[in-house]
């Protein structure tokens, strides 16, 4: 398939051939599978504190023998570890502690920080997932489903756009993608409604535009995501594991994608 190559003024220079990665189709199942596998390897390990819930002198103090000191024999109580709150003579006021069924006790099966969250990914499935992500950046149905509007994406620009100032760059993006799409292209950070604000999720933002450059190219732009080809991940091309994201490429990035993700690298 062919697409248009734009210069820094937004004019079409020529038509270029896109790699086969953009026309290999979308496998939603494999894309979601690889997305979940890669997401796990990027999560921060978490686990309970060592000794959490076991900070009581409770284990083993309750006996079940006749005529024994601190015995629970004949009391009609369970054998769980208990801590002594008070006593009157040989009568004890016990409260269950330490075990999972008691207040303040340890969890039965807490998350463990030493667990390895890495999941192996089949090489062919990884390539199919990347191809699905690339195809989703130009597939009209996927983009329309994601943004609820008809969108053209996957435009290619020559290297001159890297030297533009931010004002001129976004004027170029508005000219090529369309003025109506700028609200989806620029990241919009806003405060979340509801209790999520109390749970470490105070703000939420849309994905915005993804601009892919070659590994030896440099560009910094606020309000969008700029990613090099050698740093591309499935979450960049397909946020939430679903194909479809507004994306722009440099001409050199397209050539590098063909070399890195081509058929010979299966």
Notes on the structure:
The protein is of the alpha/beta class. The protein folds into two domains: about 1-45 and about 120-265, Ribosomal Protein L4, Chain: A; about 45-115, no CATH class. It contains seven helices and ten strands. It has helices spanning about 30-40, 125-135, 140-145, 165-175, 180-185, 235, 250-260, and strands at about 1-5, 10-15, 80-90, 90-95, 155, 190, 205, 210-215, 225-230, 245-250. The strands form three sheets. Strands 2-1-5-10-8-9 form a six-stranded mixed beta sheet. Helix 1 packs across helix 2 (about 125-135). The longest helix has 14 residues, at about 30-40. The chain starts with a strand and ends in a 6-residue tail after the last helix.
Shape: elongated
Structural class: alpha/beta
The major pleated sheet works out as: 6 strands, mixed
| Second rung of CATH, namely the architecture of the largest domain | 3-Layer(aba) Sandwich
Number of helices: 7
Question: How much of the residues is beta strand, in percent?
Answer: 15-25%
Strand order of the largest sheet: 2-1-5-10-8-9
Reading off the top of the CATH hierarchy, the class of the largest domain is best stated as Alpha Beta
Q: Which percent range fits the helix content?
A: 10-25%
Mean pLDDT: 90
Q: Any low-confidence stretches, pLDDT <50, length ≥5?
A: none
Amino- and carboxy-terminal Cα gap: 21 Å
What's the number of domains? 2
CATH third-level topology of the largest domain: Ribosomal Protein L4, Chain: A
Radius of gyration: 29 Å
Helix and strand string, N-terminal first?
EEHEEHHEHHEEEEHEH
How many DSSP E strands? 10
CATH homologous superfamily heading of the largest domain? Ribosomal protein L4/L1
């Amino acid at each position: 398939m062919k697409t248009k190559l734009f210069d820094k003024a937004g004019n079409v220079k020529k038509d270029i051939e896109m790699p086969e990665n953009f026309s290999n189709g979308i496998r939603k199942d494999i894309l979601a599978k690889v997305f979940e596998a890669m997401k796990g390897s990027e999560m921060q390990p978490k686990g309970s504190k060592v000794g959490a819930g076991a900070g009581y002198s409770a284990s083993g103090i309750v006996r079940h023998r006749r005529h024994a000191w601190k015995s629970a024999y004949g009391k009609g109580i369970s054998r769980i570890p208990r801590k002594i709150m008070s006593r009157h003579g040989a009568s004890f006021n016990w409260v269950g502690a330490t075990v999972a069924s008691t207040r303040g006790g340890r969890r039965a099966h807490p998350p463990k920080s030493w667990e390895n969250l890495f999941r192996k990914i089949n090489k062919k499935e990884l390539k199919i997932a990347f191809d699905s992500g690339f195809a989703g950046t130009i597939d009209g149905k996927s983009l329309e489903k994601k943004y609820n509007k008809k969108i053209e994406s996957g435009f290619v620009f020559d290297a001159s756009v890297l030297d533009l100032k931010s004002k001129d760059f976004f004027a170029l993006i508005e000219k090529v993608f369309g003025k109506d799409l700028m609200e989806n292209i620029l990241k919009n950070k806003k405060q979340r409604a509801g209790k999520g604000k109390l749970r470490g999720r105070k703000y939420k933002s849309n994905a915005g535009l993804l601009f892919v450059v070659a590994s030896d190219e440099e560009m910094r732009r606020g309000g969008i995501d700029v990613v090099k080809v050698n740093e591309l991940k499935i979450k960049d091309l397909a946020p939430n594991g679903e194909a479809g994201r507004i994306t722009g490429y440099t001409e050199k990035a397209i050539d590098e994608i063909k070399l890195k993700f081509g058929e010979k690298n299966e």
